[in-house]
Design brief:
The complex is a heterotrimer of chains A (417), B (289) and C (327). Chain A is 42% helix and 16% strand. Chain A has 417 residues and is an alpha/beta fold. Chain A has two domains: 234 residues, Response regulator (Rossmann fold, 3-Layer(aba) Sandwich), CATH 3.40.50.2300; 154 residues, Rossmann fold (3-Layer(aba) Sandwich), CATH 3.40.50. In chain A, helix 2 packs across helix 11, helix 5 crosses helix 6 and helix 11 crosses helix 12. With 289 residues, chain B is mainly α. Chain B has one domain. Helices cover 73% and strands 0% of the residues of chain B. Chain C has a domain of 222 residues. In chain C, helix 4 packs antiparallel against helix 12, helix 5 runs antiparallel to helix 6 and helix 5 packs across helix 12. Chain C starts with a helix and ends with a helix. Classes of the chains: A alpha/beta (417), B mainly alpha (289), C mainly alpha (327). Chains B and C meet through helix 3, helix 8 and helix 10 of B and helix 7, helix 13 and helix 15 of C.
Chain lengths: 417, 289, 327
């Protein structure tokens, strides 16, 4: 009886996969293509589509779907159509690992992507490494993934927390001063981020104080009182997601903007929209920005994406987009989809301008597998004209400059024999 | 330092007032219907989202009035359709039922309003601080506390001075007797569930003004409310009031000394209370067994 | 089915029930053969076994003693952390990891059980939830020891040396599945024996009528405490296996939402039956795996499943079977 139930369910699943996976997200429609007889290239994507990170995860997946449609429209990867299999990690490590195993063991995917949550991304990389499957981390930020825990099969698109911190520190020091107060979430991401800020601040000869708070803190008044007492030049809001938003709102409500500047590392467009207009302020890092006048291909991409997906692409959309294209480029270079060959081809692979969508040389550095993309440092402001025009880039810091030499990342890459 | 502590005491009471509102609704339902409403946090979220939808049409003040009523009405309907079917069964079923409802409502919120956080606009006058010295108290916080005081006073007056309220209180103590006296216990429980949901909805509107809206917004508030009830003593609404204020205060004061433990401290308080006084601060002996 | 019938069913000579049992074990033993054919994968079967064991252990308390805990994820998660911490900091020994994981969860349950054995019903449930959340917060906040929010990593299950033989369960092949199955079988056998013992019968007596049990001289509080502790111990064992399965332990393994899932597995399978929770775990895990691949709105479906089970199948899938099936 049990076996019967299992088989019924699972068979139906295989039949339905294509159809329902497409229907799951609204922008999926461009990617229905007639089968052309070849076995498709299967790409597995694991992201927290539910839970507190879901807004970011859904953007990544939308970007990936958009890229898949584009790739399929131009003949696929190595002449084969691309099929994207999306799984929800539900922001749970156990589920994320389980879904990764499922994509590898059952669906036999050629590459794995994920996860927004660095903890899950790391756990996934243990599995992909063991199975020798090519793995791209589009948007999990903690340093060790391309640092102390780097692996031959794992590449990362988004910046490390250290890169973001290193890029914005000089601007903050220049604009506000050297006395800082940190509000930092009390877990690995927050710790590495604050450490990176402190390292750079000390180089500039600054001083600091701060509080480590639980990740989901929603009331910051106690800490803001403390901050006001310390009298810093700038307040560094390192919280993520909703906590970051609430911290900013209270900062504004309390009128602290008169006493000190506000800044931090990441502030994503998905989050900015959750903040009331008067609290859309401060100095932040974008890891990609849609409005880059004069940079080739960017305006075309943004226009086409807006038409296809009905929204302005965010950095997360670009992560997803660049991720899919990276696999295509690596596969074309390697003429193969085997994990070790893909990984070898990705090393020092430079993204062409229509994928990089930003100036300069954007490549996956061989030493640590980190994508050397520019860091957009600038100021958040309430929408001007365009509803998504909420950020003004003040400085574009090249990835190499922000990341520092490979030796400092702690990565010792070992390749399979 | 003394100033910081004073600041935080005030602040803790504000947060505590909020827990109280949440926990009172939960406590009402628990006391009369013997149901732990896991979906309580989701009724809170719904209250907030209703306000988000209504504000453009009726303004913040109108939404503040209507949204809790809608949440209460929904609670009433949910009780009539679903919850009441499991009263006579093992408590495991009511737990599972509200647990499942919590999943469904949370998912529905995400489906309808999207996974992104949304801001709920509050009147400008409320978003300003009281004065430069009291910069950390915005008028909105004062307003929240005022509303909580009015709501709590209203609830206690309702329970003390109206016929339905008296019956709810009597039912909490001895449902069988109340039933044999000819009171329509089924209706009483529906109304009671509705009132509980109404309080959750009201918390939701207030919370949305303070921390914004998101589909998971009730989750973080559910556990503190449980703990407020356990600490205050199951069966005693005054105890819940006390428990909520106590853990709000403890959380805020811990932030001064060791911020990372500001969440953990409420669990420590619960453990201490369970060890020393298992029935809770004001719990009746026998209610917890 | 009333209590006497359950006692009778448990006591019934093995011969009359060997056929379904043999079929069950044949199915379980052959998993690596048939599962890929129907589109499954072995790691999924591993998850079913682990959660099934947790649910059967939990059901000692819920189904056979009649006491409602809603915080069993705490002991599951403690088992996982115990095993993970052992492998990470103490020794690369899988048996030691399982032992210490089981002990950590079991002892925590035993101590906590002392505090709450007098409570009943929803209040018992409420206090167990809150205690579970205490464990969750400890794991979540203690960055240095547990890895905090990101979870405990940097450990792997180790091959087991048996004299000259080495049981290589480190890989992802069927070897580890059979290892899980072996542990599962041993644990289930122990629980089966326990339920046939006088102690097990007194658990059932408490479930059927606590007052009568008291009159019969059964020390009710002490037995509920015992049942709670044993149940926590088996759930912790399952948790330690979960850590081995994932080579990972994370705070969500302690969260009350997992407690809720363990309860629904048990009830869906049939809480008055011994094997029901395993069936419930299988159905739940497969459904969740299936639906969450189909739609991002899987939470609604899972929630709906809760509601449907509660309203229409309160006795669970196996709860209906014995009347027709076994005769």
């Amino acid at each position: 009886m049990k076996a019967g139930k299992l088989s019924g369910v699972l068979r139906r699943r295989t039949i339905l996969t294509a159809g329902v996976a497409i229907g799951a997200l609204p922008i999926a429609s461009p990617f229905i293509l007639p089968a052309r007889g070849e076995t498709p290239v299967k790409l597995g994507w694991v992201d927290p589509l539910t839970g507190i990170l879901s807004a970011l995860a859904q953007s990544e997946v939308e970007g990936a779907r958009y890229a898949v449609a584009e790739v399929n429209g131009k003949g696929g990867i190595l002449g084969r159509p691309v099929e994207l299999l999306v799984e929800d990690s539900a922001n749970d490590v156990g589920t994320g690992v389980q879904k990764t195993r499922k994509l590898i063991d059952r669906d036999q995917v050629d590459a794995i992507f994920g996860d927004v949550n660095s903890g899950i991304a790391y756990a996934m990389s243990q599995v992909t490494n063991e199975k020798k499957v090519f793995h791209i981390v589009p948007g999990g930020h903690t340093d060790p993934i391309t640092g102390a825990d780097c692996k031959w099969n794992v590449f990362r698109i988004c910046n490390t927390t250290s890169m973001d911190a290193a890029a914005i520190t000089p601007e903050l020091v220049k604009t506000f001063g050297k006395k800082w107060f940190f509000i930092t979430p009390d877990y690995a991401y927050g710790h590495t981020l604050q450490d990176a800020f402190v390292k750079n601040l000390k180089k500039a000869g600054g001083s600091y104080d701060g509080d480590m708070l639980p990740i989901n803190t929603s009331d910051f008044s106690a800490t803001l009182i403390k901050a006001k007492g310390y009298g810093p030049n700038v307040l560094l809001n390192n919280m993520g997601g909703l906590a970051q938003i609430n911290c900013m709102k209270q900062f504004t409500q309390f009128g602290l903007g008169k006493d000190m500047g506000l800044g931090g590392a990441l502030f994503e467009i998905e989050s900015i929209k959750g903040v009331p207009k008067d609290a859309q302020t401060g100095w932040w890092v974008m890891e990609w920005w849609w409005n880059q006048p004069g940079v080739p291909h960017v305006a075309d991409f943004v226009a086409a994406f807006r038409k296809g997906a009905g929204k302005t692409p965010s950095a997360r959309h670009w992560f997803g987009y660049a991720g899919i294209h990276s696999v295509r480029l690596a596969a074309e270079r390697a003429k193969s989809l085997a994990g070790p060959k893909l990984a070898a081809a990705m090393e020092d692979l430079e993204l062409p301008p229509d994928v990089a969508l930003q100036p300069g040389k954007v490549r996956y550095r061989a030493g640590d597998h980190e994508l050397m993309s520019n860091v957009f440092v600038g100021q958040v402001h309430p929408p001007k004209g365009d509803a998504d025009d909420v950020f003004a880039t003040a400085a574009l810091v090249p990835g190499e400059a922000a990341a520092g030499p490979v030796a400092e990342t702690g990565c010792k890459m070992s390749h399979p024999a | 330092m003394l100033q910081v502590i004073l600041y935080n005491v005030t602040n803790g009471l504000i947060i505590g007032a909020f827990y109280v509102l949440m926990a009172l609704g939960l406590s009402l339902i628990l006391n009369l219907s013997n149901v732990i409403n896991f979906a309580h946090g989701n009724f809170l979220a719904l209250g907030g989202y209703f306000a988000f939808v209504l504000t453009p049409f009726v303004g913040f003040w109108g939404a503040l009035l209507i949204s809790p009523l809608l949440a209460g009405l929904l609670g009433f309907v949910v009780e009539r359709l679903l919850i009441r079917r499991v009263y006579r069964r093992d408590p495991v079923y009511s737990l599972l039922l509200t647990f499942g409802l919590a999943f469904i409502i949370q998912d529905a919120c995400r489906y309808i309003w999207g996974p992104n956080g949304l801001p709920l606009g509050i009147p400008d006058a409320l978003s300003r601080p009281l004065s430069p010295a009291l910069f950390f108290i915005t008028w909105y916080r004062v307003f929240m506390v005022a509303i909580v005081i009015v709501a709590v006073a209203g609830l206690f007056a309702f329970l003390r001075h109206t016929r339905v309220g008296l019956r709810i209180r009597a039912g909490t103590l001895d449902l069988e007797t109340v039933s044999t006296l000819g009171v329509n216990v089924r209706l009483l429980r529906s109304i009671n569930f509705g009132v509980g949901s109404l309080l959750a909805g009201l918390s939701g509107v207030l919370a949305a003004g303070q921390i914004g809206l998101n589909p998971n917004m009730g989750d973080d508030l559910l556990m503190p409310s449980f703990i407020a009830i356990i600490v205050g003593g199951v069966g005693s609404l005054t105890g819940t009031l006390l428990g909520g204020l106590l853990i709000g205060l403890a959380g805020a004061l811990t932030t001064v000394v060791y911020p990372a433990a500001s969440e953990a401290v409420i669990y420590v308080i619960m453990a201490v209370v369970l060890l020393i006084r298992p029935r809770g601060l004001l719990g009746e002996e026998g209610m917890m067994t | 089915m009333n209590g006497a019938a359950v006692v009778a069913a448990i006591r019934r000579p093995a011969e009359t029930r060997w056929l379904p049992l043999a079929a069950l074990w044949a199915v379980l033993l052959a998993v690596p053969l048939w599962l890929p054919l129907v589109g499954g994968y072995t790691a999924l079967a591993g998850r079913v076994l682990v959660l099934g064991l947790a649910a059967i252990g939990f059901n000692l308390l819920l189904g056979f003693t009649g006491v409602m805990s809603f915080g069993h994820a705490a002991y599951f998660g403690l088992g996982a952390y115990g095993a993970g911490l052992t492998l990470r900091y103490l020794a690369a020994s899988t048996p030691l990891a399982m032992l210490l994981g089981t002990l950590l969860g079991g002892v925590a349950g035993t101590l906590f059980g002392l505090l709450i054995a007098r409570r009943r019903g929803v209040y018992f449930a409420m206090v167990t939830i809150a205690f579970g959340q205490v464990c969750y917060y400890i794991a979540y906040s203690w960055n240095d020891l547990t890895g905090g929010f990101d979870g405990l990593r940097g450990f792997r299950r180790a091959p087991i040396g048996l004299g000259p033989l080495v049981l290589d369960i480190a890989g992802d092949g069927p070897a580890f599945y059979y290892f899980l199955l072996g542990v599962f079988a041993a644990a289930v056998a122990l629980m089966g024996l326990l339920l046939r013992s006088p102690l097990g019968h007194s658990f059932i007596a408490i479930r059927e009528n606590e007052r009568r049990a008291r009159f019969l001289g059964i020390p009710v509080e002490r037995h509920i405490w015992l049942s709670f502790s044993i149940s926590c111990g088996f759930t912790a064992l399952a948790g330690s296996l979960y850590a081995l399965l994932n080579n990972f332990a994370d705070p969500l393994g302690l969260h009350y939402s997992l407690s809720g899932e363990i309860v629904i597995m048990t009830v869906m399978g049939g809480m008055r039956t011994f094997w029901g929770p395993l069936l419930g775990a299988a159905v739940f895990v497969v459904l969740q795996d299936y639906i969450s691949s189909m739609t991002t709105n899987w939470m609604s479906f899972i929630g709906l499943l809760f509601v449907v089970v509660v309203l229409f199948f309160p006795r669970g899938l196996l709860g209906f079977l014995p009347r027709r099936g076994a005769r």
